[in-house]
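Q: A small favour: would you put together sequence and structure tokens for a protein?
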Amino acid sequence: MDGFEKIEVENEQGVATIALQGAQVLAWEPKGERPVIWLSREARYVQGKSARGGIPLCWPWFGPHPVEPSYPTHGFARSLTWELKGREEVEAGTLVVFGLLPHEPSWPHSSELECRISVGRKLEVELVTYNRGDHPFTLGCALHTYFSVSDVRKAKILGLEGTRYLDKVNGGERIQEGAVTIHSEVDRIYLDTASTCLIEDPGWNRIIRIEKTGSRSTVVWNPWIEKAEKLGDMGKEGYLGMLCVESCNAAQDVVTVPPSGEHRLKAVYSVLASQPGLRRSA
């Protein structure tokens, strides 16, 4: 990571690495636990491009721009350098606050961004959008979180049962039946859901809990073999050790921010030991 500006956060409860470019969390683990956030061994640390893994911030649109295909996929916030506004010790661990004033030709709205990251036994990431103008604007946004798993083929995602989703690989709209499992390329936008999700990982005997607010959709993504090779920075069989479960406002679930208003997208990540009855009490 030489030349790629970042900060290290460590306290009695957890440790994390955060890049100033994109306010991107690159690593997080509670003390005594395995890493929870996945980062490719072949991640590239260059200006203007998010590293493969971690938690890239997608803003002010998710995926391709709806009108102009030349604009960057997932917006521009993840490729800009954010200002470190503050750092303080809090009950939950360490709170780090980043700020960004976006001035881009593709975004003609007066706005301000803040990313608040709390590092401890839990990781809390909150992306705040302030409308500083006199007119409303609509935006899509996401916490594009890569989770580390022992073997994605054995992992399960709970919490999306019965939810409609857009299938970006096979096309069409479907209903999720049972837990989400990964045995081929998966790229899905689960619609109109504010549900907490659980990633069951029997190989590491743990459950990752993903709570969210200010999010109306959830994306599940794994590139699998062919697409991972095309990406070029996933690492050899890297796709087997990662799983993206993203807290979003995507597709038709975009949000409108009123004049002088704000929108807060927040996710809270925690690790639960895999014990009998845990799923019922989580």
User: Anything to note?
Assistant: The chain has one domain: 6-152+213-267. The CA atoms of residues 157 and 199 lie 5 Å apart. DSSP finds two helices and 21 strands in the chain.
